[in-house]
């Protein structure tokens, strides 16, 4: 009898699939936040132990899904950053901008097996015109 296991790639694919489904289920930005014309999210990553991943920017327009969970930039990492509460905060208080930082809580496949990721993520969220 053969046991099938979900390897790091399988786990990553499951996570991607979950995120895809949740994104599809999310309301559109213009429905969820009618007062927000567009949103720009910027991410800067700092890895203390190796070369940091390149910064990322995401712009959401009114027809985009209001889904704010972003996967860790490391391909083998299971971590995700959920900024839904931050976007809610902007919308509730009519803010134009917010920023903060977080640490990835996922696990990465390294040379010596699974290690905690600990990637430092600085993010900023800005409401567009
Ligand atoms: Zn990570």
Plain-language structure description:
The structure is a single chain. The protein is of the alpha+beta class and 129 residues long. The chain has one domain. Helix content is 25%, strand content 33%. The chain is built from 3 helices and 8 strands. It has helices at 8-25, 29-32, 84-93; strands at residues 39-46, 56-60, 69-71, 80-82, 97-103, 107-110, 113-116, 120-127. Strands 2-1-8-5 form a 4-stranded antiparallel beta sheet, with helices on one face. The longest helix has 18 residues, at 8-25. The model has no long low-confidence stretch (mean pLDDT 91). Zinc ion (ZN) binds at residues 72, 74, 77, 79, 104, 106, 108, 117, 119.
Keywords:
single chain; 129 residues; alpha+beta; four-stranded antiparallel beta sheet; two-stranded antiparallel ribbon; 33% strand; globular; binds zinc ion
Instruction: List low-pLDDT spans.
Output: none
H/E element string? HHEEEEHEEEE
Return the structural class.
alpha+beta
The helix content, as a percent range, equals: 10-25%
- Strand arrangement, largest sheet? 2-1-8-5
Ordered list of secondary-structure elements with their pairings:
Elements: H1 8-25, H2 29-32, E1 39-46, E2 56-60, E3 69-71, E4 80-82, H3 84-93, E5 97-103, E6 107-110, E7 113-116, E8 120-127
Antiparallel strand pairs: 1-2, 1-8, 3-4, 5-8, 6-7
Zinc ion is lined by residues 72, 74, 77, 79, 104, 106, 108, 117, 119.
């Amino acid at each position: 009898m053969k046991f099938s296991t979900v390897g790091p790639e399988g786990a990553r694919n499951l996570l991607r699939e979950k995120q895809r489904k949740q994104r599809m289920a999310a309301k559109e930005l213009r429905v969820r936040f009618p007062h927000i014309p567009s949103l720009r999210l910027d991410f800067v990553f700092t890895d203390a132990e190796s070369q940091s991943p390149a910064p990322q920017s995401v712009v959401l327009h009114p027809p985009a899904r209001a889904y704010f969970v972003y996967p860790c930039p490391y391909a083998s990492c299971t971590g995700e950053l959920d900024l839904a509460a931050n976007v809610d905060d902007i919308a509730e208080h009519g803010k134009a901008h917010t920023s903060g930082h977080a640490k990835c809580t996922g696990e990465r496949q390294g040379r010596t097996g699974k290690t905690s990721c600990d990637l430092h993520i600085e993010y900023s969220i800005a409401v567009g015109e």
